[in-house]
Amino acid sequence: MTTPRKHRKPVVKGKQDPDRPQTPREEYRAALDELNRYSENNETAEAVDARDRFDKADRNRRRWWSFR
Predict the structure, then answer these.
(1) Domain for residue 9, yes or no?
(2) Residue 47 domain-assigned?
(3) Where is this region: Disordered (predicted)?
């Protein structure tokens, strides 16, 4: 006889509450998605802003070794 599977919470894509600030992981993923929309040689203001946002999000991201 097999063990019945536990019901899991549905996977929710995107932010649920627009007033809630993004977590560092969400900010990093959003910055990475924005950065990937631009080509590597694109030096427009939007591309530079996306690169800056990604770099800032990467600095604020907590690494696995910093959790205690």
Answers:
(1) no
(2) yes
(3) 1-25
Helix (H, G, I), strand (E, B) or coil at 26: helix
Q: State the Cα–Cα distance between residues 44 and 58, nearest whole angstrom.
A: 21
Which domain covers residue 36, as residue numbers? 24-62
Residue 1 belongs to some domain of the structure? no
pLDDT in tens, the chain (68 residues): 677 777 776 656 655 666 778 888 888 888 888 877 776 666 788 888 888 888 888 777 666 566 55
pTM, full prediction: 0.43
Number of domains in the chain: 1
Name every residue whose Cβ is closer than 8 Å to that of residue 28 and which is 6 or more positions away in sequence.
Answer: 54, 57, 58, 60, 61
